[in-house]
């Protein structure tokens, strides 16, 4: 997966916007104004994704490319180095999980608005 494929996959999800709220290098994807993925466009490709805390630990133990979230709450976020050691399908699954994790924490009203 490259940065274009990552971006294309993220923006197809319902209610997703992209922006550079922190600096000119950190591309942030949000669903209903809640972050679910961050990536740096000028460094080796990696992504920060939100994750169930127990699953986050399991993934770090299973994959050497999965680390505690860089500059994020390490309980809920993982940094995934996209170095070819993890399949695109697996990366997409983790993107989906991150998106779903954020949507699940939204209010019922926000969830209903997303489904419109």
UniProtKB/TrEMBL annotation:
It holds the Pfam family YjbR. InterPro entries: YjbR, YjbR-like_sf, YjbR/MT2646/Rv2570-like. GO terms for molecular function: DNA binding. The keyword DNA-binding applies. Keywords: DNA-binding. The keyword DNA-binding applies. Gene3D superfamilies: 3.90.1150.30. PANTHER family: CYTOPLASMIC PROTEIN, CYTOPLASMIC PROTEIN-RELATED. This is MmcQ/YjbR family DNA-binding protein. The lineage of its organism: Bacteria, Pseudomonadati, Bacteroidota, Bacteroidia, Marinilabiliales.
């Amino acid at each position: 997966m490259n940065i274009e494929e990552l971006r294309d996959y993220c923006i197809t999800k319902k209610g997703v916007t992209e922006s550079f709220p922190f600096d000119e290098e950190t591309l942030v994807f949000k669903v209903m104004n809640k972050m679910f993925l961050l990536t740096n466009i000028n460094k080796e490709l990696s992504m920060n994704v939100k994750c169930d805390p127990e699953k986050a630990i399991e993934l770090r133990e299973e994959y050497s490319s999965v680390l505690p979230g860089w500059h994020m709450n390490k309980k809920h976020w993982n940094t995934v180095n996209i170095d070819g050691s993890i399949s695109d399908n697996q990366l997409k699954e983790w993107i989906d999980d991150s998106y779903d994790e954020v949507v699940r924490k939204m209010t019922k009203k926000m969830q209903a608005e997303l489904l419109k």
